[in-house]
Amino acid sequence: MTTPNPAELDKRRHELTNGLLAMREQLAPVFDTADGMRADMEKRGWSPTAAEQVALAWLLGAMNIAMGGVKR
């Protein structure tokens, strides 16, 4: 096994960073929607714990679909 050269490591690090930033930008509406759902349920009288659990369940399902998980 050979040691990667520093230039190649920098290139890979740069590509990974750019990919993570792009993913963050693309997933922001999903997180915003989950936050909005939670806030709306609390305004309607749901307990903060119940609202968080429902929003989390929705968020986990949305993330699974976004990441190519179970197709529905």
Automatic annotation (TrEMBL):
It comes from Streptomyces shenzhenensis. This is Uncharacterized protein.
